[in-house]
Write a structure and sequence with these properties.
mainly beta; Thrombin, subunit H; Pdz3 Domain; 3 domains; 6-stranded antiparallel barrel
Length: about 375
């Protein structure tokens, strides 16, 4: 699968690669993907030693390997799945990975792995294969849960870690089924944090983890683990000119996985907080040319949305600065819940951390004057 990222990104199912978290802004912020790069941090000598040594990687594999599964999603004609890998007479099969979430047989994977499938099979590390039912999926975060009827003794649930505690340079391990080779393990480091990738429904997924651990087609849905064997992300995408591993992979953070999986298990679907605005980042340089403050300018407001109900205003025109067009005359968001907002991505991340019905206090500039607006966020069902 090829994702709609500006760069050549591929979904990492057996024939493609995927992405994924809804941020609550209903339109994209432009043709160029906004990315916030984590401040570079040199790995310590101990981190390098841990990463390059095979001993901790082997320990992680022995601790977590039995909890990783291979997934085959099959369909017959008219499938919306992006995996045309094999099968005849109109049949298609997609291969991906996943991990055991609990001892009830719930398995976490990517939404793009099982999208459009008529049947799903899960192969455990012990070689046993089970028919799976889809509990729920969320295209906005590219996450899904399927369930198998397997004895608890055959299930080895993995623990979700705290992705918010990751640092650039931390060692990580990926386990999955690249090209159908189940139980394959690769290792690397956290290359960057707070990346933004694009979900199957074109929603932005915030705070993605970038890693140089080798991820290929078939790794989709498999776990990215820390050196303690905790799941800190779900492997979903690669950036590659060749379509293979070029050392730039992306995983959906465990914080998003935890929030979405709980919803999928409860109702089969996930809801995401929605503000209902189309916005554009106003950099310091652009702000100087526009004669306004830096922040996030509202270009348009979705009718009937939370933003509309709160009286937020969209732009009345556009102005070009250094060859770039910017909206003008709309409300300029400079802070949310007391946190300075410098980019559209940052605003989306703050909204993504909220739930429908939560309040958000926005500091805006309107006509050169500062104003505080309290918004009760709406809901966007995937």
């Amino acid at each position: 699968m090829i994702s709609p990222r500006t760069l050549s990104a591929a979904l990492v199912g057996s024939a493609l690669v995927g992405a994924g978290a809804g941020a609550g802004i209903y339109a994209s912020t432009g043709a160029h993907r906004t990315v916030t790069v984590a401040a570079p941090a040199a790995a310590s000598a101990s981190q390098v030693a841990q990463t390059t040594s095979t001993q901790p990687v082997g320990q992680v594999y022995r601790r977590a390997g039995d909890g990783v599964v291979e997934i085959v999603a099959s369909s017959t004609g008219g499938s919306s799945s992006p995996f045309p890998s094999g099968g005849g007479s109109g049949s298609q099969a997609a291969e991906g990975s996943g991990f055991v979430y609990d001892d009830k047989g719930d398995i976490v994977t990517n939404q793009h792995v099982i999208a459009g499938a008529d049947s799903v099979a899960v192969k455990l590390a012990n070689g046993s294969t089970y028919k799976a039912t889809v509990v729920g999926s969320d295209a906005s975060t590219d996450l899904a849960v399927v369930k198998i009827d397997a004895p608890a003794s055959a299930l080895h649930p993995l623990q979700l870690g705290d992705s918010s505690k990751l640092s650039v340079g931390d060692g990580v391990v990926a386990i999955g089924s690249p090209f159908g080779l189940e139980g394959s393990v690769t290792s690397g480091i956290v290359s960057a944090l707070h990346r933004e990738i694009t979900a199957p429904d074109n929603a932005p997924i915030e705070d993605a983890i970038q890693t140089d651990a080798a991820i290929n087609h078939g790794n989709s849905g498999g776990p990215l683990l820390d050196l303690q064997g905790n799941v800190i992300g779900v492997n979903a995408q690669i950036d590659s000119d060749s379509g293979g591993n070029d050392g730039v992979g992306f995983a959906i953070p465990a914080s998003t996985v935890r929030s979405v999986v709980v919803q999928l298990l409860a109702s089969g679907k996930a809801q995401h907080a929605l503000l209902g605005v189309d916005v554009q980042t106003i950099t310091q340089q652009a702000a100087a040319g526009l004669g306004i403050s830096a922040g996030v300018e509202i270009d348009s407001v979705q009718s009937g949305s939370a933003a509309d109900g709160a009286g937020l205003r969209g732009s009345t025109g556009h102005m070009t600065v250094d060859g770039q067009s910017y909206p003008t005359g709309g409300d300029l968001i400079t802070a949310a819940d007391g946190t300075t907002v410098a980019t559209a991505q940052q605003l989306r991340g703050l909204i993504a951390a909220k739930k429908p019905g939560d309040s958000l206090e926005l500091t805006i500039e309107r006509g050169g004057k500062a104003k505080t607006v309290k918004v009760t966020l709406g809901s966007r069902s995937a």
